[in-house]
Amino acid sequence: MKKIVAGVTVSVLIGAGVMSSPSSAAADAAPGDIIITLGEDLSDEERETVLSEMDGGEQDTIIEVTNEEEHDYLGEYIPAAEIGSNAISSSQITIAEAGTGIDVETNRINYVTEGMYANALVTAGVEDADIYVTAPFEVSGTGALTGLIKAYEIETDVDIPEDQKRVANEELVKTGELSENHGTEEATELMARIKEAIGEEDVETEEDLRNLIERIADEIGITLTDEEMDGLVSLFERMQDLDIDWDHVQNQISQIRDNIDEWVSSEEAQGFVQSILDFFSELIDTVRGWFEGSGSESGS
Which UniProt keywords apply (predicted)? Predict the structure, then answer.
């Protein structure tokens, strides 16, 4: 099972893009409200296993996601064979307190990372939620975003525009492609920092955008191919056409950074660092013991 430490690291990555229309409507959903999505093609046994894992039951709000829906949103960006013929990925969304950001945890998802989900969800307009994505066996997780967005719309009574959904799915796929060539953390950071920079700087032309992407990629240590660069320019041009409240973006980023500073100075963070130091200290003592033992044997 994978989880971002203290939910802070993911929040850093997703703080770079918040859509204006859902943020006001999300107030209709109360913190603690839960909705579960299940892949339509789960067997009865798999369904029970997934629900048990999420501490859910038939009394909870449950929606099903079909393979047809997955193909509808992903088919333009990845081959049908990669999407597959069954909807398996399942998820749970818990509405969180305003301003807490998105916290993502995954289990048995072997391709899409927590940061990739978080980035794409914010692009789609999701904010302030605890997300859990799982499956009864190892899957890529590419189809889970469809269910997460669908669940958020139902729980918050928000209609997310189709263009936002499609751009979010494209971002998820694009980040996955970049991660294969440049590393998952680097690709996720690149996407987040581009969105942050678009909110901070005047990006009026394609050349401005291209220069911005190239600069950030260089700072991270990524050398983009011409095809990768063209794909990112196309993606972020469409993203710029969406209804993004950039003032809200900046406020969100500021809040997230405050949370990071608070966590770094907390007892939890200090204990985490100390546990790492203790581990290496014990490891060094163990290795030293091996050599000392070897030396005494050879001298006898």
Answer: Signal
CA 78/CA 61 separation, integer angstroms: 30
- pLDDT digits over 267-295, tens only? 654 554 455 455 555 655 665 566 556 55
Q: Classify residue 271: in a domain, yes or no.
A: no
Bridge partners (DSSP) of residue 62 are 36
Q: What is the pLDDT of residues 217-259, one digit of tens each?
A: 999 999 999 999 999 999 999 988 887 665 665 555 455 445 5
Percent of the chain's residues with pLDDT above 90: 43
CB within 8 Å of 42: residues ≥ 6 apart: 50, 88, 90, 136
Stated pTM of the model: 0.71
Whole-Å CA distances, 26 to 104, 273, 275: 18, 36, 39
Which residue's entry shows tokens 């500073």? 261
Q: H helices within 126-223, ranges in order?
A: 144-156, 162-182, 184-200, 206-220
Task: Kindly give the interhelix angle for 226-240 and 184-200, rounded to the nearest 10 degrees.
Answer: 40
Of 218, 212, 210, 208, the closest CA to residue 186 belongs to 218
d(CA 167, CA 51) in angstroms, rounded, equals 30
**Amino acid occupying residue 37:** T
Of the pLDDT bands very low, low, confident and very high (cuts 50, 70, 90), residue 54 is very high
In-domain check, residue 265:
no
Residue 257: partners with Cβ closer than 8 Å, 6 or more residues away: 12
Structural domain of residue 225, as residue ranges? 2-252
Does 65 map to a domain? yes
- Mean pLDDT of the chain, nearest integer: 79
